[in-house]
């Protein structure tokens, strides 16, 4: 697939360019987590409204049905399996961030859950005292001192910024599971995984997002603030605010 290879190469070049050109901010990449940096707000609000419409009529109903009718044991298995699929990239980012302890935990989780899971459908590692943690390329760039830049709302993907958008692209390109599926002309598996992950994640945040929306005077501004705070906490390797503000 020449086009796919060229697309991957262009994304990798963009990642390298961003890393080379970015200048660390004096107080750290996320020192302005509580400040508003949203010069594209009119456009962002339009995309946010579009995302909310898709969520209201498609994603939330599907996620609600999934939560209400799929047994919890199966949903837990799906979450564990999806987390295990992402673990190789989490391990890479743990290493790039200099988090030796977390890298060791991720490495142990991969082997324990893959072998004893089996295949990751059971989170045996958490039962053994090695809990799951997340890490991504956008977070890694933030740890390296790359500033997030202006707030962005991406169609369907939700809150982001230029740094984290590059991180999303890098994650897609570097994912070994995706590479294997594309090489075997099984693109539909990648799409199925993406949809399943979106529904699964949304089902875990139904009440949280409903509560945030019902108590917000400006839901857009609240999500923007929570996203910035959450990313800042993740980059500092602190416990982020509850929920996943990605409607």
Ordered list of secondary-structure elements with their pairings:
Layout: H1 2-21, H2 41-69, H3 72-96, H4 100-116, H5 124-127, H6 137-143, E1 152-154, E2 158-160, H7 162-174, H8 176-183, H9 187-203, H10 206-214, H11 219-235
Antiparallel strand pairs: 1-2
Helix pairs in contact: 1-7, 2-9, 3-4, 3-9, 6-7, 6-11, 8-9
What does the model show?
It contains eleven helices and two strands, in the order H-H-H-H-H-H-E-E-H-H-H-H-H. With 247 residues, it is mainly alpha-helical. The protein has two domains: 41-70 and 151-173 and 180-247, no CATH class; 71-135. It has a two-stranded antiparallel sheet. Strand 1 (152-154) and strand 2 (158-160) form a beta hairpin.
- Termini, distance in Å? 33 Å
Please estimate the helix content: 55-70%
Number of domains: 2
Total number of β-strand segments? 2
Provide the succession of SSEs.
HHHHHHEEHHHHH
Determine the oligomeric state from the structure: single chain
Give the neighbour order of strands across the main sheet: 1-2
How many DSSP helices? 11
Radius of gyration from the alpha-carbon trace, in angstroms? 18 Å
The largest sheet is:
2 strands, antiparallel
User: What percent of residues are in strands?
Assistant: under 5%
Q: Stretches where pLDDT falls below 50 for ≥5 residues?
A: 1-31
């Amino acid at each position: 697939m020449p086009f796919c290879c060229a697309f991957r190469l262009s994304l990798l070049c963009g990642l390298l360019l961003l890393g080379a050109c970015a200048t660390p901010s004096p107080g750290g990449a996320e020192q302005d987590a509580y400040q508003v940096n949203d010069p594209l707000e009119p456009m962002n609000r339009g995309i946010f409204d579009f995302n909310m419409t898709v969520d209201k009529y498609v994603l939330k109903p599907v996620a609600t049905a999934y939560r209400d009718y799929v047994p919890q044991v199966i949903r837990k298995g799906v979450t564990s399996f999806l987390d295990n699929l992402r673990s190789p990239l989490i391990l890479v980012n743990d290493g790039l961030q200099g988090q030796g302890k977390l890298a060791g935990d991720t490495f142990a989780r991969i082997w324990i859950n893959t072998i004893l899971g089996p295949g990751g459908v059971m989170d045996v590692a958490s039962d053994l005292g090695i809990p799951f943690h997340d890490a991504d390329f956008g977070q890694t760039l933030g740890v390296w001192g790359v500033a997030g830049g202006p707030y962005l709302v991406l169609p369907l993907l939700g809150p982001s910024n230029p740094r984290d958008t590059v991180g999303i692209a890098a994650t897609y390109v570097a994912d070994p599971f995706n590479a294997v599926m594309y090489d075997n002309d099984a693109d539909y598996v990648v799409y199925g995984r993406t949809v399943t992950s979106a529904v699964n994640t949304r089902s875990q945040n139904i009440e949280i997002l409903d509560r945030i929306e019902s108590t917000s005077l400006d839901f857009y501004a609240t999500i923007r603030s929570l996203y910035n705070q959450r990313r800042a906490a993740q980059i500092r390797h602190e416990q982020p605010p509850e929920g996943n503000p990605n409607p």
